[in-house]
Design a protein that fits this description.
Radius of gyration: 36 Å
Strand order of the largest sheet: 9-12-13-6-14-15
Mean pLDDT: 79
CATH architecture of one domain: 3-Layer(aba) Sandwich
Number of helices: 25
Helix content: 55-70%
Bound molecules: adenosine-5'-triphosphate
Largest sheet: 6 strands, mixed
CATH topology of one domain: Rossmann fold
Strand content: 5-15%
Distance between the termini: 55 Å
């Protein structure tokens, strides 16, 4: 790459990072910045276009923002010709439809979201209408009743207004008084009805957003765990927040205003037709032209809406992630990098919004021009009609007033229609998520056994995560009821995954898991999970008091004494009691140490007196003394508290596993050794080697 081109390119990248491809896709030679850095500046089409196209950066869309690079001048170039070509290029870029048009949108994202099923305006409206109607139909009935009354009152007023003025000018006192009283009556009616209309539609907004969020949230919560592996939390919360709010405007604002203005427009048109049909038709023609322009504009709005929605969700996701990991960011000093990452999405949002605003400006310009020309046209035609004695000044006044109403109503309709289409476009992803069927696990009612013994069998089980290689291969293990077993093996060999399969968080790719002789998928999974106590490596706490955190998800009624006993067994009572508010202290994920969180999670698992207890590195953050105490208590619980327990322990510390009845040694997704501590030592295999290493470097 030549030096000047290289530096220039780097400068451009620094200034406009989202709009230029990364350096590996940059033109390699023969490019320099032109002298004319005028708006809009572009990337020359002679550069390595195909490479640009194949990259994730769409130069076609973005280049047209501000950059202009031309092949390096060999010294013989014709300046005038270059300038002329430049301006042609610039002028053409202002028109939509040209491949390098300024109006082209950054549609990389659309490719990704293209899977979202298209929804028609009718279907979206019907769904939203039903949501409000089913919750409170009276709100809608009163709202539409008030809307109709207000619209009729308002549209009658210009006619009566003109009648009053002209009756006064003609000295007809009685007529004037009657019209004046009518005006007062209509003013009061329209005032009351408008207030009622706004209030009821506001209420419909609230109902709709609440129902949308309820339904969307419950649709999301009941998805398979693998769904959450694919979707980001920020994306989902953005759908629940901003997108639902956007959708709620459809009934409360858009439909409300569109219906009101449609009624007013119909009334105005009816009056116009009675006044003068040629004038009415000329106004109609102008309204039709406006509608045609609006159609073009609305199609553009639909596309910008979807992109805005997606980019906003991505920005939200980045912000959520950065704020959640703020400590890591501070420690690694990556604040600026994170701001840059967030800004990248804001830039893309601004890119779309700029075009959207420009399109809105154009649309408003067309409207204003046509609106004014209607008035000019009316005065011209009306003036000719008055001069030739075909119409009166009163009729012309009424005509001009109603003409204004008609055009104004048309503008309000189209304006709200564009906002409606914007929301409908945003509704696609929301409805798509809402329509997801709950996980199979919640749809089928499985078998509930009278008692869970805790006999577990993995028969030829294989498994891989979505888009990953096979992780577990042909696992055949048996865990007898009331046995304590340990899973041992190097990090990443699939120990936690094995447990995830037992909890049915994922389904095996092959093979079957049996619990008490029944295939796992035949059992009522909620019932089974009630009987399992699970403590994960990095337990999470909810933002609520410690007592509620320990009691969380417990299927039976518990007293304060039960909670305290469980906390004592988990070695948690002492530190909880040291807090000023004891068990009522509000905690969350950030307010306790790792070891404290683990102890609360262990207390939570002990409290529910499970038939199967799974401890996945559950004591890894505890000091040795507490770990031994907790381990001894848990093992002692085995035959205690009204029922036996099968205990599965995953641990790296060998001190935790030596007491197990059976140890499964895993490596690269396979169980390679089975036996108790002594048996495995005698085998002198992988486990024995682990013990030797451990004895050399005890933790
Ligand atoms: N949700 C997931 N999606 C894709 N891959 C995953 C997922 N969860 C775990 N993995 C991958 O599966 C492999 C096994 O993970 P697993 O947590 O079962 O290992 P482990 O033996 O419990 O490790 P450790 O002892 O470090 O906890 C890892 O390579 C991990 O990256």
């Amino acid at each position: 790459m030549n030096t000047s081109g290289d530096i220039a390119y780097q400068n451009l990248r620094t200034s406009f990072p989202p709009y230029l491809p990364p350096p590996e896709f940059a033109p390699t030679s023969g490019f320099k910045l032109t002298k004319k850095l005028q708006f809009p500046i572009m990337i020359s089409t002679n550069c390595r276009r195909n490479e640009f196209k194949s990259s994730s950066y769409r130069v076609r869309n973005s280049s047209l923002m501000f950059q202009y690079m031309m092949p390096e001048d060999d010294g013989n170039g014709d300046e005038n010709f270059e300038s002329f070509g430049h301006w042609i290029h610039v002028s053409l870029s202002l028109f939509p439809g040209v491949s390098y048009s300024w109006w082209n949108l950054d549609e990389d994202k659309q490719v990704q979201i293209g899977a979202a099923k298209r929804i028609t305006v009718y279907l979206a409206l019907r769904r939203m209408w039903k949501l409000v109607w089913d919750s409170n139909r009276w709100v809608l009935l009163v709202a539409f009743g008030a809307l109709t009354m207000a619209a009729i009152s308002e549209i009658s007023m210009p006619n009566i207004l003109a009648d009053s003025i002209f009756s006064a000018s003609r000295g007809k006192t009685t007529v004037f008084a009657r019209k004046f009283h009518l005006l007062v009556f209509l003013s009061i009616t329209s005032g009351i009805c408008s207030g009622l209309r706004s209030g009821c539609f506001g209420l419909a907004n609230i109902i709709l957003v609440k129902r949308l969020r309820e339904l969307l949230y419950s649709a999301i919560v009941f998805q398979d765990i693998s769904f959450f592996d694919k979707e980001t939390v920020g994306n989902l919360t953005s759908r629940l927040g901003a997108d639902c709010q956007q959708l709620a405007h459809i009934i409360g604002n858009n439909i409300n205003l569109i219906t009101r203005n449609a009624l007013q427009a119909t009334g105005a048109l009816a009056y116009l037709l009675t006044l003068s049909w040629p004038l009415a038709i000329s106004t109609l023609v102008i309204c039709s032209v406006l509608s045609a322009i609006f159609l073009l504009y609305s199609r553009y709005v639909m596309r910008t809406a979807k992109l805005t929605q997606e980019f906003a969700a991505c920005a939200h996701d980045v912000a959520r992630e950065s704020l959640t990991l703020v400590k890591t960011i501070r420690i690694y000093g990556t604040e600026r990098k994170e701001v840059g990452r967030y800004k990248q999405w804001l830039d893309r949002l601004a890119f779309i919004s700029t075009r959207e605003s420009a399109a809105y400006g154009l649309w408003n310009m067309s409207f204003s021009t046509l609106y004014r020309s209607t008035q000019v046209f009316a005065v011209l035609l009306g003036g000719i009609a008055i001069l030739s004695g075909q119409t009166s000044a009163e009729q012309l006044t009424k005509y001009v007033l109603y003409c204004e109403w008609l055009i104004y109503a048309t503008w309000r309709i189209t304006d709200n229609l564009s906002s409606l289409l914007y929301s409908i476009a945003a509704s696609e992803t929301v409805f798509q998520l809402m329509d997801l069927l709950p996980s199979e696990q919640f749809l089928c009612k499985g078998v509930k056994l009278p008692e869970l013994m805790g006999h577990i069998q993995f028969v030829n089980v294989s498994f891989h995560y979505h888009l990953r290689d096979m992780l577990l291969e042909h696992i055949n293990i048996t865990i007898r009821a009331n046995e304590v077993v340990a899973l041992v093996g190097p990090s990443g060999c699939g120990k936690s995954t094995l447990v995830n399969l037992l909890l049915r968080l994922y389904e095996p790719t092959n093979g079957q898991i049996f619990v008490d002789g029944i295939p796992l998928w035949e059992l009522d999974i909620r019932w089974l999970r009630e009987k399992i106590g699970y403590v994960e490596q990095e337990p999470n706490l909810f933002h609520m008091d410690i007592k509620s955190n320990i009691r969380y998800g417990c299927p039976m009624n518990t007293t304060q004494e039960d909670i305290e006993l469980a906390a004592k067994q988990a070695c948690a009572h002492e530190f909880i009691s040291s807090f000023p508010n004891g068990y009522d202290t509000i905690v969350d994920d950030n307010l306790l140490s790792g070891g404290e969180k683990q102890r609360i999670a262990i207390a939570r698992a002990i409290l529910r007196n499970p038939a199967i207890l799974i401890l996945d590195e559950a004591t890894s953050a505890l000091d040795s003394e507490s770990e031994h105490f907790v381990k001894d208590t848990i093992f002692a619980l085995k035959d205690n508290r009204g029922g036996q327990k099968t205990i599965i322990v995953i641990a790296h510390r060998l001190s935790t596993v030596v007491a197990a009845d059976k140890i499964f040694v895993m490596d690269r997704g396979q169980v390679i050794e089975i036996g108790n501590h002594e048996e495995l030592l005698r085998k002198d295999g992988y486990y024995a080697r682990l013990v030797k290493v451990h004895n050399k470097h005890p933790d």
